[in-house]
């Protein structure tokens, strides 16, 4: 059953309660490989379900527009102080509702409509809010996009510098959603300094790896840092902005009153809990295990003939081009889900297919590492992935069902926070 239990929900709205229970069971029985997902601790789950959700708190600690903040202010202050200590930053804002509004606050803080922003193109691994055309950030600002080399699948920083010198952006984003390699924050910082741009590091995917010392930090290189608080950080669905002292005031004004009203206090408390957990020595072990598992899984997939973008991974994420397997990403992802292996279909660099029916799949190891799986299980997982992809191409549903049963049998021995 769902843990903590939801008896009042079951009594009031059994239809929703049944769906919650079913989702908890589904998460327990699936190998969850979507790299932007994880399992939060029971403590984080409890914090998100508290009476803190009842309280409005427009403004910042000691500068609120509503009364009754005597206990809310210390909660937000704890979250801010823990973020500053964990990441070693001058300033932190824990109020953004999610990653996209956090990034939009950066635009509001430092750009005017029509100014030039440079970010990684979405099909190359960037994020919608880094200036992609269908996003408000691509409609309201002049966007120039960099990508990766076709032969290596990696960012060519000489080309990034040439583009920056030619286009003179006021804001440069580094980071993204499908980048399997280490982000060179010092090199981006040099480029930004040369053209007089603010450098924003979007570490949403790798925040937990940075906190755990498994990926280099942008602190001291990027003036502004944005991140979600879920993914590798294992917190609730929220976001943070961090910065040096010089850029702090502009960021705070952009979040409130620029974009948002009252923060979600129950989320703030859960962020504080997750940050405390991330400061424990065991979290460093977790972060390094995430990377070790990703490397082991990537190697096992390579041995089975899979084509990995950039040839492998340095972090938690693996991007696979399935062209050589004779199947597109979408049918492969759906077959894998039926086989008990949850990941997402994804474009790959220079993909000739459309985004809703792309050539690739994206997978990662944060959630399975939280469950306790280690490098010794990665070859078996790669074998299941290979078998399910082949079965999808052959229409062999019996093989897919057999893999699903084997997955469930394995996971029965690995507890999951949120399910008892």
Automatic annotation (TrEMBL):
Residues 10-385 form the Serine hydroxymethyltransferase-like domain. Its main location: cytoplasm. The lineage of its organism: Bacteria, Bacillati, Actinomycetota, Actinomycetes, Pseudonocardiales. It comes from Solihabitans fulvus. Belongs to the SHMT family. Keywords: Amino-acid biosynthesis, Cytoplasm, Methyltransferase, One-carbon metabolism, Pyridoxal phosphate, Transferase. It comes from the Bacteria. PROSITE patterns: SHMT (PS00096). Pathway: One-carbon metabolism; tetrahydrofolate interconversion; Amino-acid biosynthesis; glycine biosynthesis; glycine from L-serine: step 1/1. This is Serine hydroxymethyltransferase. It is found in: Cytoplasm. It catalyses: (6R)-5,10-methylene-5,6,7,8-tetrahydrofolate + glycine + H2O = (6S)-5,6,7,8-tetrahydrofolate + L-serine. Catalyzes the reversible interconversion of serine and glycine with tetrahydrofolate (THF) serving as the one-carbon carrier. This reaction serves as the major source of one-carbon groups required for the biosynthesis of purines, thymidylate, methionine, and other important biomolecules. Also exhibits THF-independent aldolase activity toward beta-hydroxyamino acids, producing glycine and aldehydes, via a retro-aldol mechanism. Thus, is able to catalyze the cleavage of L-allo-threonine. Pfam families: SHMT (PF00464). GO terms for cellular component: cytosol. One of its GO terms (biological process) is glycine biosynthetic process from serine. Homodimer. Its cofactor is pyridoxal 5'-phosphate. Its EC number is 2.1.2.1. SUPFAM superfamilies: PLP-dependent transferases. One of its GO terms (molecular function) is methyltransferase activity. PANTHER family: SERINE HYDROXYMETHYLTRANSFERASE (PTHR11680:SF50). The record marks 230 as: Plays an important role in substrate specificity. (6S)-5,6,7,8-tetrahydrofolate binds at residues 122, 126-128. The modification N6-(pyridoxal phosphate)lysine is found at residue 231.
């Amino acid at each position: 059953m769902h843990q903590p239990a939801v008896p009042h929900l079951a009594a009031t709205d059994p239809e929703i309660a049944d769906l919650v229970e079913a989702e908890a069971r589904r998460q327990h029985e699936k190998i969850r490989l979507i790299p932007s997902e994880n399992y939060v601790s029971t403590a984080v789950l409890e914090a998100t379900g508290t009476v803190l959700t009842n309280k409005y708190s427009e403004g910042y600690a000691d500068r609120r527009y509503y009364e009754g903040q005597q206990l809310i202010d210390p909660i937000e202050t704890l979250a801010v102080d823990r973020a500053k200590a964990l990441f070693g930053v001058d300033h932190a804002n824990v109020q953004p509702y999610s990653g996209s509004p956090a990034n939009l606050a950066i635009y509001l803080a430092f750009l005017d409509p029509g100014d030039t922003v440079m970010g990684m193109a979405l099909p190359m691994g960037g994020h919608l809010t880094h200036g992609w055309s269908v996003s408000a950030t691509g409609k309201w600002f002049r966007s120039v996009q960099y990508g990766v080399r076709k032969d290596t699948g990696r960012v060519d920083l000489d080309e990034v510098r040439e583009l920056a010198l030619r286009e003179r952006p006021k804001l440069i984003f580094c980071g993204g959603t499908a980048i399997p390699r280490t982000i060179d924050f010092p090199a981006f910082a040099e480029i930004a300094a040369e053209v007089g741009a603010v450098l924003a590091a979007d570490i949403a995917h790798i925040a937990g790896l940075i906190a755990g010392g498994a990926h280099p930090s942008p602190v001291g290189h990027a003036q502004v840092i944005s991140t979600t608080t879920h993914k590798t950080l294992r917190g609730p669905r929220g976001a943070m902005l961090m910065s040096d002292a010089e850029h702090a005031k502009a960021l705070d004004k952009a979040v409130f009153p620029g974009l948002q009203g009252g923060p979600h206090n129950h989320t703030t408390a859960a962020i504080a809990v997750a940050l405390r957990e991330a400061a424990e020595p065991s979290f460093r072990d977790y972060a390094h295990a995430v990377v070790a598992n990703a490397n082991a899984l990537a190697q096992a997939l390579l041995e089975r003939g899979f084509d990995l973008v950039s040839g492998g991974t340095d972090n938690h994420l693996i991007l696979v081009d399935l062209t050589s397997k004779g199947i597109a990403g979408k049918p492969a992802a759906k077959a894998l889900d039926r086989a008990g292996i949850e990941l997402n279909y994804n474009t790959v660099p220079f993909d000739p297919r459309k985004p809703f029916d792309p050539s690739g799949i994206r997978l990662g190891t944060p959630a399975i590492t939280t469950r306790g799986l280690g490098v010794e299980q990665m070859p078996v997982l790669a074998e299941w992935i290979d078998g399910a992809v082949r079965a999808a191409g052959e229409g062999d549903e019996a093989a897919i069902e057999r893999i699903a049963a084997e997955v469930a049998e394995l996971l029965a021995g690995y507890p999951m926070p949120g399910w008892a």
